[in-house]
Amino acid sequence: MTSVLFSAPVAPVSNMDAAQYPQQQQQAANTNSSRMLAQYQVLQTLGSGLQGKVKLGVDTVTHQRVALKVIDMAKLNRKSMINVYREVEAMSRVSHTNVLRLLSVHDDVPYPKKDGNVKQVIVIVLELATGGELFDFMMYTGCFAENIARAYFQQLVAGLEACHAQGVYHRDIKPENLLLDETFALKIADFGLSGLREGADGAMAELYTQCGTRGYMSPEVLSCLPYEGEPADVWSAGVVLFIMLAGFPPFQIATSQDWWFRACAAKQHEAFWAAHARSATFSPGAMSLMTRIFHVKPQERITLAEIKTHPWFKENAIAPDDLRAELLSRKLQVDEEKRKEREEKLRAAAKQRLQQQDEEFDPFNMDVERSMAVSAAAGLSTAEVSSKKAPSYPSTSVALYTSFQSSRTATELQTRVEKALTEHSARFVAHKDRFKTKATMAADAEDVGFAVRIYSLDNAPGRCVVEFRRTSGECLKFHEAYKKLSSSLSDLVWDNNDESETADDSPAEELISDEAMMI
């Protein structure tokens, strides 16, 4: 039986090929410790998406660790099948150190489930990127120094240049689709939405589909008009560069409804950068490059070739050993934060089970306030609660731009955070004794999850930090949620009277005022 789904040079494996492993698969079906897909031992789940799960796998022939993208064929419709084909075709065209490698494709393979049943799946075998998502490093440890951001932007441009040379336009460039390998080198991944240039003449093909993640889409893609792939990818790469440097996006969406985008469209770049300079620091060279990237008209936008000649891009990058040392230090913090999140989920699940069973004993001995109402922590008097000190701000943490300082008490801040969450119809669990709140807010078609922590500042007695960290959902949606909540808490923000204020007639003041009118 021959596969008809794929025409990529990477040879697919049909069920007749997969039948070469019947003994291994039969053994796998009878054991709880491991299962087999073709010659790959299937281990734990690494992640999941719309089309299927990604599993850690081991090639039993070469002993190489790989990522197995497992797609249930019974759940494939015409659209999803086209996306699978597009991903395989795109990745098979490109071979570059900054593009995730496609190792093989296995079509119509029997997959033994833990319950003894067998389903037919497509298996896309990919290079394993053990460093994780670039987004995790920014989410958990803050934005990057300019030399690190430049190094990763250089790698991103190199990978995109290799893709475009083979007629592959990614169309969904964002930090979540940029992975890191064991040496922390960048790998462009997830080509399921890519556009492919057909034909041997190498002519630029117009694309029509509005696809990708809206916050990273170029204005021409959002306009639903025909567009070219390279300028669209350049725009998305510019948004990634901005986020690497600032820790937040340059605008919410590239349409006329967004004031920040309108400033770019009207070429009011001075106002755009003056406003953003209130929350982040950009060098003149970085602003110069991103200004040319954020040209609304694609024909005026800087190209990849021109980016490579820009003075900021050509500056000496951080030494590879220094880059690895910095990212290794950050990865330890990322792993620790994720470990804490897993523990919190286990505690919450155990607590919920106990509540469902009407048991009064709490094995974790934690005070968890699940009511939407604001109340004092159980077992403590009002006076005791009001005098309780928040934990000290970790010395290893990197300050986030989704945080603010306040001179109010930790208890007052906790109360106001819960009140703001209630006002915005958020679902939340408040751990009052630790000044930590896990929350979920509705954001269009999907929810965004985040944690709110309150810390005391040992080096600034009488002040606290209120920190918001995303746990699930899109980055841009998280920033929208933070913007809403921080607006409700704006009266709590510490005001340093020694800092000079921006003049009323400055471009930044004009921008903020106009933006406030839009909200």
From TrEMBL:
<keyword id="KW-0808">Transferase</keyword>
<dbReference type="InterPro" id="IPR011009">
    <property type="entry name" value="Kinase-like_dom_sf"/>
</dbReference>
<keyword id="KW-0067">ATP-binding</keyword>
<keyword id="KW-0175">Coiled coil</keyword>
<keyword id="KW-0418">Kinase</keyword>
<feature type="domain" description="Protein kinase">
    <location>
        <begin position="40"/>
        <end position="313"/>
    </location>
</feature>
<dbReference type="InterPro" id="IPR000719">
    <property type="entry name" value="Prot_kinase_dom"/>
</dbReference>
<dbReference type="InterPro" id="IPR008271">
    <property type="entry name" value="Ser/Thr_kinase_AS"/>
</dbReference>
<dbReference type="GO" id="GO:0004674">
    <property type="term" value="F:protein serine/threonine kinase activity"/>
</dbReference>
<protein>
    <recommendedName>
        <fullName>non-specific serine/threonine protein kinase</fullName>
        <ecNumber>2.7.11.1</ecNumber>
    </recommendedName>
</protein>
<keyword id="KW-0723">Serine/threonine-protein kinase</keyword>
<keyword id="KW-0547">Nucleotide-binding</keyword>
<feature type="coiled-coil region">
    <location>
        <begin position="325"/>
        <end position="360"/>
    </location>
</feature>
<dbReference type="GO" id="GO:0007165">
    <property type="term" value="P:signal transduction"/>
</dbReference>
<dbReference type="Pfam" id="PF00069">
    <property type="entry name" value="Pkinase"/>
</dbReference>
<dbReference type="GO" id="GO:0005524">
    <property type="term" value="F:ATP binding"/>
</dbReference>
